[in-house]
Design a protein that fits this description.
single chain, Rossmann fold, 4 domains, six-stranded parallel sheet
Length: about 700
C-alpha cells in the first residue's frame, strides 16, 4: 500500500516540476524581453526594462528557492466541498490552462491545511504530508481527521509532526511549513496592523512561527513589505546564522537579518561586556548621559579666538563662544548646524568691528577676508568639527570628562566600570545602542544643497573651501572607534521582527524602536528566559518603541522541542528557583531522563568521556555549554579529540572546516538554538555568573531534544 501511495504521489509531483521548469523558462524569457526594451533608446523603454527585469529576477529567485520540498501537503475534503485533492506547496503554480495546480501555503485556500483538527475537521477527511528528497517522494504521513466520513482513503504513517520531531538536528533551523500546528497558524495569519506579540515557553516554536509570519506578510502585501523592508533582530551572530535559511527556503529574500550587535549600519560587534558593565550600559538613564555628551564641546577644541582686522582686534572669548554654542544647539542636531557655523561666527565677529576702515570696507569684504584666512578656517574647523558618534563615545574614556557629564546619572563605581570597559580596542554589543543614541543626537552631516552652492558663488567659493577642509580634517580618523560614515540610513522599515525580546535592554529597545516608528511589529519572547534584570524598565522602553499601536497577543502552549523527560527536569528547576516559568506541555517522550554526573579528579577527562558517550547516541548536533570564563579552557580540552569535537573559541563563529557536530558555547550563546544532545559543564557556575544566571541556566536546560547530561 505504501509503495502504491508513493507512486501515485510521484506522478503528481513530476507534473508539478514540469510546470515549475516551464515557469522558470517563462521568467527567463521575460527577463530577455525586458533587456530588449532597454535598447529602444527612450526613457519609457528604460523604465519598462527595469520593471520587467526586476519582476523576472524575483520570480526566478522564488522558483529556485522552491525546488527543495516544493510539494509537501495534500488535503482530501468532503466531495461536496471539493471532489479533487488540494495540494499545498512552498509557492503557488498554475497549469497551462491557468487552473490552480499547487496552492501557496500562505494563500487563504491553504489555511484549512493547518487549522483543521480531529475535533474540528472543517470538511477535511485526510491530511497528508509528503516528504521529498529533491523531486522524489520518499515518504508520506497521514492523519484521518474525520473518522465518521465514509471513505476508503488509506492512512499511512505515524503522523507528520511526530515524524518531524524525531529527526536529527543540524546547524540551521528549517522551515516547519509542512507541520505548522493550529495555534501556530493563528499567530502566523494574524492581522498585519499593529503589533503581534507571540509568547510561550521553551520549544513552542515561537521563532520559526515569527519567521513564517514574515513570509506570510510579504505574500499578502508584497509591495508594502518588500519596498519598506523587513528587519529581523536576534540576540547573537550564532542565532542569526542558525535561522538564516528559513526565509530563503520559503522564497523570501527581501529581509535584513541582524543581531543586536549589527542593527546600526556600518557597525558590527560580537563581544559582550561583563554582566556588571552590561547592566549599566543597558539602563534607560544612559540616554541622558549620551544626550549630555553630545552637547559638550569637543575635547581639545579652542576656548577663544583672537584676530586683527583693519583697525580692530576681534576677540571671541569663552563667554561669547559658549553663548553661540548654546544658540546653535537649540536650533537642532549638532552636525546639522555645520553649514551655519561660518556665518554664525562671522555675525558675532562683525559686531566687534568698530574702526572706520573696517566699516568702510563693509561686511562682504570682511567675510571674504576671514574665509580666506587660514587662522579663521582652522579655528572654525576645530571649534565646531563634524563629529562621528563613535568619536564622541570615545570622549567618555576620560574619567574627568565622564565624571562631569555623568554627575547624577552614573555612580562613581559605575563610572570606573565604564571607563575600564571603554579601553578595549573594539565596541561591545552593549555599546552599539549608545552609538546609535549619539548618532541621533548628533545628526547626519548634511549634503550640500543648491543653496549652499549659490552661497559658494556669492562668497567666492571660500565656504566650499571651509567645508572641504572640514571633511579633509575629519577624514584623518580611523580604527574601530571611527567608522567611515555617520549617516542614519537604516531606519524606516515596514516590519520589525524582534526575537528573544525579553532580553532587550531599554537602550536596545530605543535603538530598535527608531527603525520601526511606522512599522508593523512581531515580538517574540518568554519572560522566564530573560537575561535583563529589570523587567519593569524594559517593559516601559518596549511600550515607547511600539508607541500606541494595536496589540494582538498569541500564546503557544505546546513544547515540540524537548522530550518530556528533559523538559520535566527543566521545569522542576524553574519551579525550585522561583522563575515563575510558562510551562508548555511536551508532546514527545524518549524514555531517557537527563543524567547528572559528578566529575572525577580530572574534570577535562570526565567531560570528554561524557561528551563522547552522548555523541555516540545521537545523529545530529551536540553542544558543550560552559561558564563564560571557562569557554576557552574547555574548548582547549577538545583540541586533542578530533573524532567528534569542533572547538569554538569564539561563540559567534562556531563553525570549522569539515562537518563536526560539536560546538562549545556559553549559556547566553544558546539562546534560541536547539541540539540533539547537550553536555552542561558546572551548571552551578553558570547560575552564579550573573544576576539572571538562573534564567540563563533554565534556557540551557531546555535546548536539548534527545539527551541532556550535567557535569557538576
Amino acid at each position: 500500500m505504501l509503495a502504491a501511495e508513493l507512486a501515485a504521489e510521484q506522478v503528481f509531483v513530476d507534473r508539478v516540476y514540469v510546470q515549475l521548469e516551464k515557469s522558470a523558462r517563462n521568467a527567463e524569457a521575460l527577463a530577455r524581453e525586458g533587456h530588449g526594451r532597454g535598447a529602444l533608446g527612450h526613457e519609457g523603454g528604460l523604465v519598462e526594462r527595469d520593471a520587467m527585469v526586476y519582476q523576472a529576477a524575483r520570480r526566478i529567485a522564488q522558483l529556485d528557492a522552491a525546488h527543495e520540498g516544493l510539494v509537501f501537503g495534500r488535503l482530501d475534503l468532503q466531495e461536496r466541498v471539493d471532489p479533487e485533492p488540494r495540494y499545498i506547496g512552498r509557492i503557488g503554480l498554475r497549469d497551462d490552462n491557468r487552473d490552480s495546480l499547487l496552492i501557496d501555503w500562505r494563500a487563504p485556500a491553504a489555511a484549512v491545511f493547518y487549522q483543521a483538527t480531529a475535533a474540528e475537521p472543517r470538511d477535511v477527511i485526510r491530511r497528508r504530508v509528503l516528504r521529498c528528497a529533491g523531486p522524489k517522494v520518499v515518504g508520506v504521513e497521514d492523519e484521518l481527521l474525520d473518522s465518521d466520513a465514509e471513505t476508503d482513503l488509506p492512512i499511512v504513517g505515524d503522523g507528520a509532526l511526530m515524524a518531524q520531531l524525531s529527526r536529527a538536528r543540524d546547524r540551521t533551523m528549517h522551515s516547519i511549513v509542512a507541520t505548522i500546528q493550529a495555534e501556530q497558524d493563528e499567530a502566523i495569519r494574524a492581522p498585519a496592523r499593529g503589533v503581534v506579540a507571540i509568547s510561550g515557553g521553551p520549544g513552542t516554536g515561537k521563532t520559526v512561527v515569527a519567521l513564517h509570519r514574515a513570509a506570510y506578510l510579504l505574500y499578502t502585501d508584497r509591495r508594502r513589505y518588500e519596498t519598506g523592508g523587513v528587519l529581523v533582530v536576534g540576540p547573537s551572530g550564532v542565532f542569526m546564522r542558525y535561522i538564516e535559511r528559513v526565509l530563503p527556503s520559503l522564497g523570501e529574500t527581501a529581509v535584513a537579518l541582524r543581531s543586536l550587535g549589527e542593527v546600526v549600519g556600518g557597525l558590527r560587534a560580537t563581544r559582550h561586556d561583563v554582566p556588571a558593565v552590561a547592566a549599566v550600559k543597558g539602563a534607560a538613564r544612559m540616554a541622558e548621559l549620551m544626550r549630555r555628551t553630545a552637547r559638550q564641546q569637543a575635547p581639545g577644541s579652542p576656548k577663544e579666538f583672537r584676530i586683527f582686522w583693519r583697525d580692530d582686534v576681534i576677540h571671541l572669548d569663552r563667554a561669547a563662544l559658549g553663548k553661540l554654542r548654546r544658540q546653535l544647539m537649540g536650533q537642532g542636531q549638532r552636525n546639522r548646524q555645520l553649514p551655519r557655523i561660518a556665518t554664525a561666527l562671522l555675525d558675532v565677529m562683525w559686531r566687534q568691528v568698530r574702526g572706520a576702515r573696517g566699516r568702510e570696507r563693509g561686511r562682504e569684504a570682511f567675510d571674504d577676508d576671514m574665509l580666506t584666512t587660514e587662522a579663521f578656517v582652522d579655528f572654525a574647523l576645530s571649534w565646531w568639527p563634524p563629529l562621528e558618534a563613535t568619536e564622541v563615545l570615545a570622549w567618555l574614556r576620560d574619567p574627568e570628562f565622564l565624571a562631569r557629564v555623568g554627575e547624577g546619572v552614573v555612580s562613581a563605581e559605575e563610572q570606573r566600570l565604564l571607563v575600564e570597559s571603554w579601553q578595549a580596542d573594539s565596541l561591545s554589543v552593549e555599546d552599539i545602542p549608545l552609538v546609535d543614541e549619539l548618532r541621533y543626537a548628533l545628526g547626519d552631516r548634511p549634503d550640500r544643497s543648491e543653496e549652499d552652492h549659490e552661497l559658494d558663488d556669492f562668497l567666492g567659493g571660500d565656504l566650499q573651501e571651509l567645508t572641504t577642509a572640514a571633511e579633509r580634517e575629519f577624514g584623518r580618523g580611523g580604527g574601530p572607534w571611527a567608522p567611515p560614515t555617520n549617516r542614519v540610513e537604516d531606519d524606516g522599515y515596514a516590519h520589525i521582527l524582534v526575537d528573544e525580546a525579553q532580553d532587550l535592554t531599554p537602550m536596545q529597545w530605543r535603538m530598535v524602536g527608531r527603525r520601526g516608528r511606522a512599522a508593523t511589529w512581531t515580538i517574540v519572547g518568554d519572560a522566564a528566559q530573560s537575561s535583563w534584570p529589570d523587567a519593569t524598565e524594559s517593559a516601559a522602553a518596549r511600550a515607547v518603541a511600539i508607541a500606541d499601536k494595536d496589540l494582538h497577543e498569541f500564546h503557544l502552549s505546546t513544547n515540540y522541542r524537548n522530550s518530556a523527560e528533559i523538559y520535566d527536569h527543566a521545569a522542576a528547576y524553574a519551579e525550585r528557583v522561583g522563575l515563575h516559568a510558562d510551562l508548555p506541555t511536551a508532546v514527545r517522550s524518549t524514555g531517557v531522563s537527563p543524567r547528572e554526573v559528578t566529575a572525577g579528579p580530572d574534570l577535562a577527562e570526565t567531560v570528554r568521556a561524557e561528551l563522547g558517550a552522548l555523541a555516540e547516541q545521537v545523529a545530529g548536533t551536540v553542544a558543550l555549554v560552559v561558564p563564560i570564563d571557562r569557554r576557552a579552557e574547555v574548548a582547549g580540552w577538545l583540541g586533542s579529540w578530533p573524532e567528534h569535537a569542533a572547538d569554538a573559541p569564539n561563540a559567534t563563529t562556531p563553525e570549522r572546516a569539515g562537518d563536526d557536530r560539536i560546538v562549545v558555547l556559553t549559556g547566553i550563546d544558546t539562546k534560541g538554538l536547539e541540539f540533539d544532545g547537550i553536555v552542561v559543564v558546572d551548571p552551578d557556575a553558570i547560575e552564579a555568573e550573573s544576576p539572571t544566571g538562573r534564567a540563563t541556566l533554565y534556557v540551557v536546560l531546555t535546548r536539548a531534544t534527545q539527551l541532556l547530561t550535567l557535569v557538576r
